[in-house]
Amino acid sequence: MNDKQVKDITGRDVDFGKWYTDVCMKADLIDYSSVKGSMIIRPYGYAIWENMQAILDKMFKATGHENVMMPMFIPESLLNVEKEHVEGFAPEVAWVTHGGKEELDERMCVRPTSEVLFCEHYAKIIKSYRDLPKLYNQWCTIVRWEKETRPFLRSREILWQEGHTMHATSEEAKAETLKMLGVYEDFQRNYLALPVIVGKKTEKEKFAGAIETYTLEAMMYNGVALQNGTSHYFGNHFAKAFNIQFLNKDNILETPYQTSWGVTTRMIGAIIMTHGDDRGLVLPPNIAPTKVIIIPIGNDNEVENIANTISSNLSNVNISNKVDNRDKTPGFRFAEAEVKGYPIRIEIGRRDLENNEVTLVRRDTLEKILVKIDEVTNKVEELISTIQKDMYDRALKRRDSMIYTANNYEEMMKIANTKNGFIKVNWCGNMECEDKIKEDMGIKSRCLIDDEEVDGPCVCCGKKATTKIYFGKQY
Amino acid sequence: MNDKQVKDITGRDVDFGKWYTDVCMKADLIDYSSVKGSMIIRPYGYAIWENMQAILDKMFKATGHENVMMPMFIPESLLNVEKEHVEGFAPEVAWVTHGGKEELDERMCVRPTSEVLFCEHYAKIIKSYRDLPKLYNQWCTIVRWEKETRPFLRSREILWQEGHTMHATSEEAKAETLKMLGVYEDFQRNYLALPVIVGKKTEKEKFAGAIETYTLEAMMYNGVALQNGTSHYFGNHFAKAFNIQFLNKDNILETPYQTSWGVTTRMIGAIIMTHGDDRGLVLPPNIAPTKVIIIPIGNDNEVENIANTISSNLSNVNISNKVDNRDKTPGFRFAEAEVKGYPIRIEIGRRDLENNEVTLVRRDTLEKILVKIDEVTNKVEELISTIQKDMYDRALKRRDSMIYTANNYEEMMKIANTKNGFIKVNWCGNMECEDKIKEDMGIKSRCLIDDEEVDGPCVCCGKKATTKIYFGKQY
User: Fold this and answer.
1) Check: CATH 3.30.110.30 for B403-472?
2) Whole-prediction pTM
């Protein structure tokens, strides 16, 4: 790879879709195989997922959750227990019909999500109020038979985590739903530098079988929304369908209340499409598998030694880094470092050494900074915070510049026809208006806005509005 | 659970199979569901797997391996590329034939192992000697459609890791095969306290498609062998079948050489059946999710405070521990601690406190030790090493007491008919003799013995022996 090849990445403003795929491929995040609709996650892409998993897993455990592993198959009769749920998922599952040469008595799908498996288990292990809450999570692969797929965003196989919890009261279950939404928001803002908007989904857009669905809506560079995680409150109707009951303190049988919540490798897609640029990936330092790439220039022992010393010093303060001393031109190595989005690049050449200096390059701004060798570690530590903060702030600024307010249907239509972004409107809460907007403008509701007062009639029917809401195009 | 319920575990010497299932269930390691042939791994069982995964993953990365994620499906035509391989696996795979309502053009199996997926990918990404070696691993679930299943040992779904590597020369690939065998051996001896025998499999017993298969053979309490991990050398015939080629330093096309290696949750079964006793699970401290369980006795603030102080002190030196102060009788809590196999139990009662002492109980020997409160942390640290070593030594002693030597066919038959264990014999290397022994005695070859000289003719045909070999019953 050289500078020319970096320039072979399709321009972000030329064809955003093609730019995205180019970055996924050229940064060695994914590859394709003969398995249609699935992707190979390559070591560099998987290392990002491993970081996400490690951080989130710690957050889940700190909030009292335990990991389990449910079967990956669901017998058809089990999927059928909860009516709304099966209607939502049956059209998009993969069916196993044969084991070896024998046809199965009952076909099974590969789990598209595991509510029914958890419920069946909970019915066996929950007997008393002492058994509650049950706070389980699993890290696994699910399958949804999508027709059109796109790396990380929409794939037939999805790496994710799914939390499934049971509580004695609906208040506790609602609190859990919001707590985990908060964990996701914290993670996405502070590690992924994503200024997500969180809020409740409409009845139309909620999860199949849920009472309430909360979402994290990220906005991509092109103004298109990406639903980047959800947290659901189920009430107790799954529990009723599965006959889950517990004896309360007064020895009376009650039905518990349920939640589920999940995030996927889609978060990698959100990072790419929020922070990436024409030169490739730009990783937020707090999630980058390698925060610093050190590139010694020229075949020079002293330069190599300094590179290795800087590397050890960074490792000593737990800053992940790599020395790239491959037998390739500096241009090639710089270009590859840019495509792969390492947050900081350190260039070390003979000339700089004479001044006892090296060059630090910020990936997010491409700014070059000369730093004395013995100040490198301190400067890198400082830059990591600065870059993380700046990336968030830039994404926030861009997001806010693409939030539009429409006061009437005509205005809304005009915005929808000419711009991507989120359109904020007053809404009566009626699904017919939501449907009409989708039909007329090709945009869907993102989430309800709960911290702003209604200031006008419904943008669609003109009747009394009950809430403000965002609409927008989505992936 | 109380002492009586612990005694409800079937005696280990009464019915070993039932004892095993009782321990899996009563220690809350697994549960069953309506998904036949699969198990639910419950939080306590999954925590053991998470420890195994964390330790092994570190060992893999320290030896230069990177994690990836391949698709979980294999199109039938891809599985068919390597003939021996497909013949070995096709009879036991689960076939996906439908996506949603539509029948697939080509059916796909859920991966039973991923050689063909890695090979297809390697064919795309390996071009030059500079791309070698490729040292990839993945942690995932595989599916093999077993007729008879048993928790952890044989299941339709298996949690495992599979390493797949490519090398420029056969020497390097052979060295990798042995290196990873060594990593497994180190892990199983030093963390799981399993005195495994390692060696090469016969032609008959090797992995479908491999040139050489090395195995780790653990011996269970009842003398039955458990194949507890394998490492395979493939030569380059998969690479040829998949047309994987690289330009060597002289710019000439060559075919690379391949390995694969894997271990599974079966290792949890090996721990149970090697170390467990009539009171339940006994976990080696180096793999136990909770090394110390602290049980305060009586409703007594001072006792509770001491319990919490001891817990913090242990946490400060990174010894995982839990205080069990549930509103249950001491008898119940002691019994549960025994069933779950926590390596060390600390009992704290009012009477001991007056002497400034607490009681430590070793799970492996049930020995009780009075310890001054301010010496608890030191004593626990010491006991952890002692227990780990003693568990290994006891398992080794038992294993060695069940290795028998047979000098002729009659002796071998007599041992096979009356005893479980490994039978060491001289063998000509001919598969007909191996088949005859299996037919006559119901035992299979375990592995070749490479550190002992042949000292007689083949135990079966009486012709010149070429090697010593172990035979035995297996799970």
Assistant:
1) yes
2) 0.96
